[in-house]
Design goal:
The complex is a heterodimer. By secondary structure, chain A is α/β, with parallel strands linked by helices. Chain A is about 35% helix and about 25% strand. Chain A has 10 helices and 10 strands. In chain A, the strands form 2 sheets. In chain A, strands 6-7-8-3-9-10 form a 6-stranded mixed beta sheet, sandwiched between helices. In chain A, helix 4 (about 120-135) packs across helix 5. Chain B is an alpha/beta fold. Helices cover about 70% and strands about 10% of the residues of chain B. Classes of the chains: A alpha/beta, B alpha/beta. The interface between A and B is medium-sized, with 27 and 19 residues.
Chain lengths: ~270, ~375
């Protein structure tokens, strides 16, 4: 765990094509996520952001192209190697995806029980610590159904951090949160990155959050079926010449493009 | 409500008056179409709404129909006479053009296409079943080598849910099945004065087949459905994805404890159901056919061979795996919506019961060949 931001490539995606059967969602995706970076995957609804995340965490196999972590090709690696890479991931799903039959402490304990030899008492202590880190001290024995949506997200984050992952993936962290909770979650993300040096990949279309946390990004477009911009969103907002990217990053403000026209972009079919 | 006039040649003025709201009476839109088609065909259509007292979506839909119809015939539409609210909504409705190809054709595909699709779906379904059986077998292998990963507490909770908590319904159904068997048999047997053979009929029938089948069907409806609903819901809330990304195979963590629980509990439930069924027959025999208590008991004891018991118990263990397997399979196949969970649950029960009946037939034939 280093506290300084190490600028080496952590995730490298090359010529990635994502498809559902014959339907190509996105093609020719090329980008690099550096270690300790907050990387945003953005784009309008239905452009394949969440699907890209599913590919990155190994739930879906790309139709073609490669993705490598620390220089190791994920799908070329053997099953054991792949499992080892997967274990360096922490994922916060959109709704938290806490296991509903377990208490919050048990949710965090499960990965620890699976992958460490720690005695039960220590596991419980770690679980309590992780919950305290996300501001849920004292909620160890609550079931997911007993807490609010924002708390579920934070508990989901605590679970994602259980094994001190090298990469944290967030699927729309701001969705369904009020502005203040959303801001607190952003602060938390930055704090985790700063103190643990974790690489962070976020799927989002929440502009305020994007500008607050992003170091780098990739912009997927549903109409072009590929990425049409990459880089720091703050810089992109000022410098991009692409009208779609620009109107997205300015909420349809500049160029006189109103939001209705944003909706006109044909979006991909969710299957 | 509506009036047509032609203030100048080529211009049709539609005057709308009164209230145009849902629940009221409105003239059909075809009346306007007829006016538009009536020679001399107008080149313009305009509206006069000065006498309109109220309107809602009914009127908007009416106007949209007219505008579409007029456009197809190249008749210009003058929206100037419409109140600003209606004009605004119409503008909104036409702001984004219909996306080409977005409208899904409702037409039924031709028969060969439907047959092909059906065959393809069945083939895919069969592949999924085979893959599931393979994975489940591999998971069992891991368990035997002590490397399967599930929480012992989960197993105990599931055992409790599908064991002890199923006793009341199993009792009720088994006693009733015993009663029914005895009743049906008594009518036939009493014609020959052979009422005492009710004990044989009920005893062998229950121990060898009915006890196992009835518990199987009850558990398919009760527990198989619950498994499918649990796993299906976990699929919709991404809980199963969360397991996968942690490297915990859902097959080990979710399916295996459920299979083990039912595999262990079904024979016990079946044994219990056997005794309950015999009790049902006994009630009919003693209270309605006036058979002697000890005679009935002795007759039952003499009729049932140990093999009958073993066959029943063996079948119930098989049913346990089938019910748990179909429930978990349908749950894991579930798509991500509430409707899909319902479908998965229904499908789990249907598949479970079909599997039970097919397995019964196979085992019965096998026993016949082996002479058990």
């Amino acid at each position: 765990m280093s506290t300084s931001v190490d600028q080496s490539a952590h995730i490298v995606v090359k010529d990635l094509t994502m498809a559902y059967g014959d339907f190509v969602l996105q093609r020719d995706l090329n980008f690099t996520v550096n270690r300790g970076e907050v990387f945003i995957i953005m784009g309008g609804s239905g452009c394949g952001k969440s699907t890209l995340l599913k590919h990155l965490i190994g739930l879906k196999r790309p139709a073609s192209g490669t993705m490598s972590f620390n220089g190791v090709d994920y799908w070329q690696a053997g099953e054991e190697e792949r499992e080892k890479i997967t274990r360096t991931f922490g994922v916060l799903y959109q709704g938290g995806a806490l296991w509903s039959s377990l208490t919050l402490a048990e949710n965090i304990a499960l990965p620890l029980e699976e992958y460490t030899e720690l005695p039960a008492g220590e596991i419980r202590e770690i679980a309590a610590l992780k919950l305290a880190l996300v501001g849920l001290k004292g909620f160890e024995d609550y079931y997911p159904s007993q807490i609010s949506g924002g708390m579920m997200k934070r508990a989901g984050l605590a679970r994602a951090m259980a094994l001190d992952p090298e990469i944290l993936f967030f699927d729309e962290p701001s969705a369904g949160l009020d502005p203040i909770s959303s801001r607190l979650l952003d602060d938390l993300i930055l704090q985790i990155r700063d103190s643990l040096g974790t690489t962070i990949v976020v799927v989002s279309h929440e502009l305020a959050s994007i500008f607050a946390i992003a170091d780098n990004s990739v912009f997927l477009d549903a109409a072009a079926r590929t990425m049409i911009a990459a880089g720091d969103p703050k810089v992109l907002r000022e410098e991009t010449t692409d009208p779609v990217v620009r109107s997205f990053l300015t909420r349809g403000g500049s160029l006189g493009v109103n939001e209705r026209n944003m909706d006109r972009q044909p979006s991909g079919v969710k299957t | 409500m509506i009036q047509f006039s032609r203030p100048e040649p080529g211009r049709l003025l539609v005057s709308l008056r009164g209230g145009w709201q849902a629940g009221g009476e409105h003239p059909p839109v075809t009346a306007v179409y007829r006016q538009l088609d009536q020679p001399p065909v107008p080149t313009h259509i305009a509206f006069d709404c000065s006498a309109l007292t109220g309107w809602d979506s009914i009127l908007i839909a009416f106007l949209v129909n007219i505008i579409d119809y007029a456009r197809q015939r190249g008749i210009a539409v003058d929206r100037g006479g419409l109140p600003p609210g209606i004009a605004g909504l119409l503008k909104l409705a036409y702001a984004v053009p219909e996306r080409a190809g977005a409208r899904q054709e409702q037409a039924r595909p031709p028969l060969p296409e439907r047959l092909g699709r059906l065959a393809y779906d069945s083939w895919q379904g069969a592949q999924e079943v085979v893959a599931f059986i393979g994975e489940a077998t591999a998971a069992c292998g891991r368990m035997l080598r002590g490397r399967a990963r599930f929480r012992r507490r989960d197993l105990l909770v599931i055992i409790q849910e599908c064991g002890i908590q199923a006793l009341p319904i199993v009792s009720l159904i088994s006693v009733l099945v015993g009663l029914i068997l005895a009743f049906v048999g008594s009518i036939q047997l009493s014609m020959f004065g052979a009422q005492i053979y009710i004990a044989n009929l009920v005893g062998i029938g229950i121990f060898r087949e009915m006890g196992a089948i009835m518990t199987g069907v009850i558990m398919a409806g009760r527990t198989g459905a619950a498994f499918a609903a649990q796993l299906g819901t976990m699929q919709t809330t991404e809980e199963i994805d969360a397991l996968r990304t942690l490297g915990i195979p859902p097959m080990d963590y979710l399916v295996l404890p459920r299979m083990i629980a039912l595999f262990l509990m079904m024979p016990l439930l079946c044994l219990y159901a056997d005794f309950m069924g015999v009790l049902g027959g006994f009630i009919v025999g003693v209270t309605m056919l006036d058979l002697n208590f000890s005679a009935y008991y002795n007759q039952t004891k003499a009729a049932i061979r140990l093999n009958d018991l073993w066959v029943g118990l063996f079948m119930s263990a098989v049913f346990g795996i089938l019910v748990a397997g179909t429930g978990c399979l349908r749950g894991l196949q579930c798509e991500r919506s509430a409707a899909a969970v319902g479908k998965a649950t229904t499908s789990a029960v249907v598949t479970g019961i079909v599997a039970i009946v097919v397995a019964t037939a196979a085992i019965t034939v096998l026993c016949n060949i082996l002479g058990i």
